[in-house]
Structure formats: C-alpha cells, structure tokens
Records
---
Amino acid sequence: MKERQQNIESWLSKLQQESWNLELLISGFSIFLLIQASQGLKSLAISYRGNFVTNGALESVPYLFIGILQIASYVLICNLIIHIFLRGFWIGAIGLRSVQDKVSYEKLKYSDFFVKKLQKRISTLDTLLIRLDTISSVIFSFTFLIIFMLISLFFWVVWITLIIITLDAGFNFLGESWAETLEPVLGITVLALLFLGVIYLIDTLSLGFFKKFHWVSRIYYPVYRLFGYFTLAGIYRAIYYNLISRFSKNYIRLFLIIYLSVIILVPFTKLDSFQFFPDTPGDTLLDREFYDNIRPKNDRITIASIPNQLIKDGYLPLFLSYDINDNDNIIRWCEDYTPSKENLFVSGIRIRSDGFTFNNPKVKEKDPEKLRDCLANYYSIYLNDSLYNQQEFFYYEHPNMGEKGLYTVLDIEGLSRGQNTVYVRAKNFDERDSLIESTFAQIPFWIDR
C-alpha cells in the first residue's frame, strides 16, 4: 500500500513538472476554438429565438445559458492569451539560463553603488523561473475555476426557476382560491432562495467570511451544503480551497475586486469618436438585415428581406420571416381556422398492435391554403403610402439559413425611379384587446431603370 502511494506521488510529481506542455497545448487549441465560437454563440441566440417560443417562466434560462457561455468564452480567451504570453516568457528564460545562468556584474563595469542596488533588486533567473511557473499554473487553474463558478450561477437560476414552476403548478392544481391564498408562500420562497444565494456568493467571493466565526459557521453550514448541491460546487471546491490557501487572502481579495470589476465594467464601456453617427439611428439606418446581398454571413433573417437595395426591373421579391412568438396573436386574428399542429413536440413513433413504427415526425394539415391565408392576412404590405392588395403568398424556406416564412413578388412597374419604401405591418392587440396594426419592417429600395 505504501509503495503504491509512493508511485502515485511520483507520478503526480512528474505530471506537475511536465504540465506546462499540456497547458500550452490546451491554451492554444482553446483560443482557436473560442474565437471561432464567439460568433456562433451570437447566431445561436438568434436561432433559438427563431425556432422556439420564448414565453413563460423558462424564457430567460436559455438566454442566460448562452450569455454565460459568451462571458466564459471572453474570460477564457483573455486569460489564456495571458497564460501563453507568460509561458512563452518562461520558456525564453529557460533558454537563456542554458547559456547564461546568472548576471555577470563585473562585465557591466558599473559603479559599486549601482551594482549593490541591482544585486538587491534583480532576482536570479532561477527565482524568476519559479515565479513565472507558479503564476502561469495559477492563471490556468483560476481560469477554469471562474468558468465553473459561472456555470454554478446558471444552475442556481435553473433551480430557482424550477422551484417557482413546481410551486406555481401545485397551487394552480389545488384551485384558484388556494392559488391566491398560497401565492405569498411562493414569493417568500423565492426571496429566501435569493437571500441565501447572496449570502453564499458573499462567502465565496470573500474567501470564507461566514466560516470564520464559530456559531455563524454552524448556522451557515446547511446553506453551504444546500448550495453545494444546487450549484455543483463540489466539482471545483478542491481547486478553490487550494488556490486561496496558497496566497495571501488580502492579495486574492484585491485581485478578485479588480478582476470582477473589469469583467463587469468592460462590456458597458467603449471608445467611440463617431460623434455624428448615432447609436440609435432609427429610421435613418439602412439595415443590412433586410438585403440578401449585403447581409452579414451567418445572420438570420428575423423580420423581412428583399434580394437587393437596387432594383432594375418591374418586380420586387419579398420574404417575410415567420416569428413563432406571434402564434398567439395569429390564432386570435384567425378565429375561423385551427392549425392541425399543436404547439408541442411532434413524434413520428407510433404504437400499433403489431409493434412500433418509426416515421418522420410530420403532421398533415387539413387545409394548407386556409392556414397560409391565416398567416398571410396577418400582414399588410404597403408600397410607399399605398396598401398593396395584389400579392399572392407562398410558403418558403429561405436559402440564407433555412428561415421559414412567406414569399411573394410585388409588381412595382408603376413606381417612379429613385427611392421607394416597402412597409410591412402586422396585426396586434393592445392592452384593451383592441386590434391594432404596427409597423413590422420598413425597407427602402431604389429603382434604376
């Protein structure tokens, strides 16, 4: 048993000495992947909104998860770049040590006074190498510790959301009178979880403030255990306690204050000298999203689109992106027809007397034309100030990113040369449930003929 323990310690010691190889490999590979993933996360958020209904209690959870991934990617990129820089410095110092392991002050021919000052202040290469190696390894570990803490924050929000949904569903199941009676219980539960979460966060960032006092630590321990399960903190606690016991806590607290301040404040600051280019240009902005020829790659069509801002013939193709978050409004508008699809998961698995059948999860629509008319009539098309009533819509999946929607071609032969505008307006309901029409898209184009 003792021999096995010695072998394990020897193996770990060897790994520690050679860990810089893995650190550099992982850092370089991670930076490359993260730079590629940053734009992908932005597209993921847009894609989620375009393919899933985002209402209800769980609405914020996916966006929070994507937001945490974005913050984590920025933290990783910045920290790993610093790590690679320091490791490169460390490798360069090792190379120098192989040919010059100490400073030859006599060859510098400095005065005795200055040599004595340098000998006090300039560390040896060995000391520098040890410091660089320690800092590099700590930065590498600290980076992933921050990532796991961000993931813990996400799980905490998920648990609170699930508890809210469960309690709310239970109260509603008991009946409306019980739901109203027990509603304060839901509010108190949420406030208690938020308060305990803040306590746990303060203790974590203060490096154990509530663990220092005997009776307070006894009261705090159940909270510590509970949030350990909620946030999966057990995964990174070994790294956390090793790091905070390695250095002075005052230095760590100062570093955390500066580090977190930078993470929080940087996204809300920028350098901008474009005084005559407004951040909120409104209708004066030519939005590239509306034009297929200038839309940024991997950007989804969220509203509407035409092929080009410059039109040379008498027809204008128009694509309207179908926003599934408008489902409720469309159903209220089109009262005389109910879609065959339900707003749920669709399965192609069927149980029959002779076994299971597996087919494509498709639902056959009772009347596709009627369904199309419901969606098409939800919109109104205007050319400049005139309502356009001659269009015929078709279901269409746009080749950009497979966005689903409606496609039509507008006859613009009668429009004058120069700038014109196509307006897309959609039905909506105000606070008094009165039907109103609001501008959905405003797309300027120029006729050149």
Note: The two ends are 90 Å apart (CA to CA).
---
Amino acid sequence: MKTCKILISALAVLLGATGVAAAQSFYIGAHGGVGIPHDSDATSSGAPGVPITVSSNIGYAVGGFVGYDFGTGFRVEGELAYRRNGLDEQSALGSTFAMQGDSSTLALMANGFYEFGAGSSWTPYVGAGIGMARFSLIDAGTVGSTPEDNDDTVLAYQFIAGIGYELSPTLTLFADYRLFGTADPEFTEADGDVVETEYMGSTVLVGIRRTF
C-alpha cells in the first residue's frame, strides 16, 4: 500500500509538471521611464575626513530584456538597462557648489520575479536582481572647474514591484518601481585625488513584454 501511494504521488507530480511545461514560454521586452537619484555621500583623498554630499536631477532610464516564464508564477530574465542623470550640487563643510555634467549607469542584470494571480488579466509582481554596472561621470565637476570623465565597474542590485496587464495572450503592458543601487564606485581624478562615492536611485518604468 505504501509503495502504491508513492507511485500515485510520483505520477501526480509528473502530471503536474507536464501541465506546467505547457505554459512555459520565452519572452522579450523593453521599458523606459524616469530615474530619480538619491543624494549620494562621497569622500576624496584630497580632503580626508570631509563628508561630501552630491545631489542630482531627475533623469531617464531605458532598457531591454529577454526572459523565461516557468508557468508557475516565477520568471527569470537577463536585462540591459541604461540610466542617466544631470549633476546638480555638491555640498561640503556647510558650502554648496553648483555642478556640471552627468552621471550614468549601464547595468547588466539577472532578475527573478514572482507574479500573483496567474491567469488573471491583472498580475501584480515582485522581483529582485543582481549584476554588474558601469558607473560613469561625464564632463563632471563643479561649475568653473575643468570637466572630467571617470568610470568604474561595480556590483549592482535592484528590488522591484509592479503590475502587468494582459493586452493579448502574447502581449503584456506593465509598470513598475525599481530601487536600484551599486557598490561604491571609486576612481582617480586628474589631480591624483581618489574619490569614492555611492549610487542609489528610484526608477519608475513602463514597458511591454511579448511572449513566444
């Protein structure tokens, strides 16, 4: 009897797996939206022990992705995303200086998602991702200084929450919020000072996903 129960359980698992496999699919998509950078703290070897805060303006984010839907509510994907923001101000020791130039990140991420209410037209989801990002400063510096370009490749991560709407059996429109951050980038300026900063930002995206 025990053996029979085991066989029945195994058969049920196999039948369930077959049902899930029928719903599995690859997908591709693209998204775009606004990037809202958080203020970042920085340090410079040219002014040891002096806290520096850098603020930036709202910018934009665009990206594309390819993924696989397991048909169980779980999805995995690879994403390439670009974010860019204009630098605004730098504050240190009670003084504030206007800044010029931009900061950007080009990130390659591996993301995982879980969707709620599978089979419904509306599907809320949560997710997280990890990867690498190229953080760049472009023509950057305080106003009046000589602008510089610097970059560093660092670990990146993100947390995601959003909702999708099924336009058709193969097309899904979605909107989500992403908290995106990196390990602290570090680079050497033209005068030899070593600068370490941080990057964290909120991104609001809309996009479309096509299933095959």
Note: Confidence is low (pLDDT under 50) at residues 1-8, 10-22.
---
Amino acid sequence: MSRWWMALLLVPVFVLPACGNDGGPAAGRATTTTTTTGAEGFGTATVSDDSGERGLLVKVRATDAGDVERVTFEFEGALPGYRVGYVERPIVEDGSGKEVTVDGGSVLGVRFEPASGFDLSGGGRQVFKGPDRLDLATTTITDVVRTGDFEAVLTWAVGIDGAKAPFRVVADAAARTISVEVASS
C-alpha cells in the first residue's frame, strides 16, 4: 500500500478523538446553517442532519423578522438530529395515525430524532409545557402544530401560506436551538 493511502487511513484515528464532547452547553455541534441552493441559502429541498444527540424540547416560538419568518425549537442539553422538508397531506399524528388539520397551502414537516418533550430518566418529567398548536403573529407561516412525540421521535408540522416557500435550517448549539427560517412572501 502506498504511503499516501496509509496516511489517508490514519487521519480518522487522529481527528476523531479531537471531535469529543465535553458535555458543556455547546456540546454536540457548533452553529451551522444547513440549507438548500438558492438566494441566500434558501431553497425548497429537504435538509437533514443526523449527527445529533438526545434532545429535550423546552420551548417553541414563531417570530416575524420582516423578510424571514422563523420557528425556533429550543432544547435542554444537546441538539437532536433533524429532517425538514415539504410533506404531502394528510398530516397524521405519530403513533395514533389520527389526521391533524394544518392551515396553509403547503406543509413543512419537522422531525427531530432522538428527541422528546418528556424526560424518561430519573422518574420522568414533562420538559415541554407549551401548547400543541401555536398562536401566531406571522403571515407566511400560517400554523405550527405538534404531530407527535413517540419513541424518541418528535414531529411538528409548519403550515405555509400558498405554495412551497424557500426555507433554511439553522442549528445553534450554544443557544440550544434549531430554527426553521422561511422566506416571507
């Protein structure tokens, strides 16, 4: 085997230990923006990151920043993996299969794994105490509904006014948030 190939094989041995987790508030991953192609990183293709750890959802909020509307999911501890993309109707609850009404012309499915709003360790405690459906002061984002918290998979549906609006996902380990930013129409 050539020296070049041997060096390439040894890189993970030296790099991976440096990627450890000190357990601090920013443990897991640094601030990253996962986007699709398009203006300023916005697009309509599904985006995902499965490098997360078990996340406990604490809070969900929707805000309007003018040219961008944002749904921010705040976690206790580490950030979970995620998958965000447009989904077809009907929207159903995880576990029960019950149909969920989501306002808007299109729907972004938001899936966190492993994640929950309930901490099963130490006797169990309810971590997420917010509503299953948010009251909104946004126009492009028409609805935000929890559609499941089942077997370490936490799902939400984000209703979008009209057709599929461009979006991006911003994960910020220091703030312990994952935000879905939607370009305002």
Note: The helical segments are 3-15.
